Sequence to fold (348 residues):
Amino acid sequence: MQFELDRSVAVLERTPSTLRTMLSGLPREWIDATEGPETWSPYDIVGHLIHGERADWIPRARIILAQGANRRFTPFDRLAQFRESQGKSLEQLLDEFARLRAESLTTLAGFELDDARLALEGEHPAFGAVSLRQLLSTWVAHDLGHVAQIARVMAKQYRDAVGPWREYLPVMDR
Amino acid sequence: MQFELDRSVAVLERTPSTLRTMLSGLPREWIDATEGPETWSPYDIVGHLIHGERADWIPRARIILAQGANRRFTPFDRLAQFRESQGKSLEQLLDEFARLRAESLTTLAGFELDDARLALEGEHPAFGAVSLRQLLSTWVAHDLGHVAQIARVMAKQYRDAVGPWREYLPVMDR
Fold:
């Protein structure tokens, strides 16, 4: 599938309500569940998505669109949520993510992107030249990857409880 | 995590609204996207979950709870949705799933399950003896596995569009 802006925004605008529907009011055991040491819980993932709104997608889009002399992105801190989420409830994080995502999408709409602007490039610290189109595609896929991760982390909590059905549940061993 | 009824119902009751939030009103390309031949789209998966409400979870729980002479489950038709969803819109399927799931959970509550009843067994056509507790755990994990699948199928549509970021997106190659 080719990247298309409307199609992408349709996913991006749904993610906060998807997470709220999946997680709000759930027993705490699900929210804090992980896949083992050094892996993330649903709570951690919501914090990670919040940090992305602040430090990744729109800031990087701005660097690309500015087309200044230095188009190199600031490296993204994949562990920022362990500091920034401290003391916050899941409900606070869900609210914060919804607010920031709405702001991001308002900003994105204001960019009035066309094919020429989507083809502009920035410099990724590891990959080198990347286009705005690739950045926005990654934003969409990143959301969906983390929704899949949350469901997978939760499913795995019942890996033993399902008994022999584990054989029919590939999610348990991904 | 041990199986616990309240904790399980908390997930089961959210799945219809999770799917609605993720999928309702999305451009058709996302709804019909697959991972390739013989794999399922989000549309197909909703139909599969509907068939599960009709033919799998509660009917099997009834067989177990009846403790009759023949406790062998009817094999589940994993492809029923390709027949049963024909001519239905995604919105119709989402409504149907929500209605059937609500009925299933009302029935489940009416079983007044305790540890003794949860330990009762039926006969799975492939696995042999399985407990009601294992069946209900599988219901929860099955929901979550398909939510993860829907998000993964959608993410993969942008596998090429993300360019070099694919390396950072494990969901693309699961």
About this structure: The beta strands of chain B are 121-124, 128-131. The mean pLDDT of chain B is 97. The first strand of chain B starts at residue 121 and ends at 124.
